[in-house]
Amino acid sequence: MDQFEAGQWIRQRDYKSFAPTPIDRPWNINAAPILQSLSHADRHLGRLDMFSEYVPDLNLFVRMHVVKEATQSSKIEDTRTEMEEVMLPEEEIHPERRDDWREVNNYIRALDDAISALGKLPFSTRLLREAHATLMAGVRGEHKTPGEYRVSQNWIGGSNPTNARFVPPVHEDVPELMSDLERFAHHHELHLPPLLKAGIMHYQFETIHPFLDGNGRIGRLMIPLYLVSEGILKQPVLYLSDYLEKNREEYYERLTRVREKNAIAEWLQFFLDGIAATAKKGVETFDAILQFQREWETDIQSWKPQATSGLALFRHLFTQPAVDAHAVASAASVSSPTAYKLIERFQKHGLLKEITGAKRGKIFVFDPYLKLYR
């Protein structure tokens, strides 16, 4: 680790860009704090993966984790959409917030599509470019070459490269740097633990900044994609955006110190500690959801004469946590008048909350369930 050199600053016209050192090369990681954090992260991640095998209808829970990941990841980019809003159709979103809503929903679709594509494609730069194309479709970055590497200089912070906080490598170097990242991902003879490789790859991706926009979101999406592709996780149940959002300043500082001080050990320890904390919280969330489900199913079974319809609606809400009266009637196989009575009972018990404030076409969310993800 003492021999690590992150790269060098290259003088351009009136600014310096950073040229990172390729990562597909031998690594000797033997620092005790990193190995301790690696062991801790491995243990908690193993528990999370094992726990996910015993959760019924895991896809329902994964979907909500993806929703939370999308909202938290977008918050890092200063897009503000809450989980309740993600559940709503676009026409119910205030016009001023629809761009944010589209960006979050694009993130959900990008991750869903990428995970599905892993059955046909290996983890690759092609996969990342396709996810980027989905991420940027029809939103504020749609004119910034979605799915394509940049062909101009970008920068982070400031109004131009001369006063920027960080200037990534020149665009001519991006294709080869990304190819190097892909080779590193599949270079198993390096004998690096996958969690360490994921941390190095995330740092390198954010340093390359290969796209004109959306680099942060793709860089964070890359982590569960890689871990699923390597068989470390059977399902994409680990998302770091909540941890990175809560530690945003330290996150940026750790990345900066790698580039300026070659402090890769500090970055990897921060990353691994984030994996451990996120995995631990994931287990707690799964456990809370199962307990919530068991307790309320037992309670609803005593709701005479609404036990059958109540259970049907309750189980439906795990697949679609935002409903209107028509959806309730369909899910519970009841008439419209009975649906309204069922909604009233769910509201009385705090299971549904109306969020539109409308007199007609009211929409209700499965509020206590959504709160389990916060």
What are its keywords?
Arc Repressor Mutant, subunit A; two-stranded antiparallel sheet; 2 domains; three-stranded antiparallel sheet; Fic-like fold; 15 helices; globular; 374 residues; mainly alpha; 4% strand
What can you tell me about this protein's structure?
The protein is mainly alpha-helical and 374 residues long. The chain folds into 2 domains: 7-22 and 30-285, Fic-like fold (Orthogonal Bundle), CATH 1.10.3290.10; 302-371, Winged helix-like DNA-binding domain superfamily/Winged helix DNA-binding domain (Arc Repressor Mutant, subunit A), CATH 1.10.10.10. The protein has 15 helices and 5 strands. The chain has a 3-stranded antiparallel sheet. Strands 1-2 form a two-stranded antiparallel ribbon. Helix 1 (32-53) packs parallel to helix 11, helix 4 (98-117) runs parallel beside helix 8 (215-229) and helix 10 packs antiparallel against helix 11. The mean pLDDT is 89.
Helix count, DSSP H or I runs of 4 or more residues: 15
What's the N-to-C terminus distance? 37 Å
- How many β strands by DSSP? 5
Q: Percent of residues in beta strands? A: under 5%
In one word, what is the shape? globular
CATH topology of the largest domain: Fic-like fold
Write down the overall mean pLDDT: 89
In terms of per-residue confidence, which ranges show pLDDT below 50 for 5 or more consecutive residues? none
Strand pairing plus helix content: what structural class?
mainly alpha
Helical proportion, percent range: 55-70%
Strand order of the largest sheet: 3-5-4
Largest sheet: 3 strands, antiparallel
